[in-house]
Amino acid sequence: MTPAPAKPSKPARSAPLRVKATAPDETRAQTYAKLAADGVLPLAFTAEIFGRALAGGECDLTAMHGRLTETAKDAEAGNLWRLERMLSAQAQTLNIMFTELARRAALNMGEHMPATEMYLRMAFKAQAQSRATVEALAEMKNPRAVAFVRQANIAAGPQQVNNGAATSHAPARETPQSANELLEDATHEQQQGMVPGAQAAPARGNPAMEAVGAVNRAEHARGQGASSGQ
User: Fold this and answer.
1) b vs e for 157-174, b when ≥16 Cβ sit within 10 Å of the residue's Cβ?
2) What pLDDT digit, counting tens, does each position of 79-94 carry?
3) N or C: where does the chain have the smaller number of CB atoms within 10 Å of the terminal CB?
4) Do 68 and 47 contact (CB within 8 A), yes or no?
């Protein structure tokens, strides 16, 4: 009878978290609530679970929490050397993953095309993640300068752009008369000149030239005849 295969033993859980109260009258539950709301403790639990295999089944949760807390405090103070070192290691690890996946794709090429395509996709994903990590590291080392550029309005033809409420102090221009108004004025002056006995208004251009008085034609004719008889 063949014996059943032995199940892999689970790594032993680390020691419980050891914390200190931040206030004299603070209970243990209140201390854990503060640490959980702070955000570092949940990540310490996650890192402790995934880090057991790396530590040979032994990983101290209290030490993990203390280390993550130090890193968070350094980042808050502007000291990013821990995170820069982490990103640098991640970029190199992703590059090694790309190399191994590309090698496996080359071994399956020509015989197992589905496996080749799968390995190539995974290799290109690792390559893209490595490049993104390098770009993030470069952004941390040399932050981009933020420039504030005002709006520029450029047009080939006539264009009116109002970027804000502007107040104009220029004097108002007189509205030119339309063609219809000029024609009406000319017609009115012509009619005034055709009315018998109407006196024309003095010319504006030469004030010295005034209108001539009314003349009786019959008396004027007799006066001219008498003058010629003499």
Assistant:
1) eeeeeeeeeeeeeeeeee
2) 889 899 999 999 999 9
3) N
4) yes
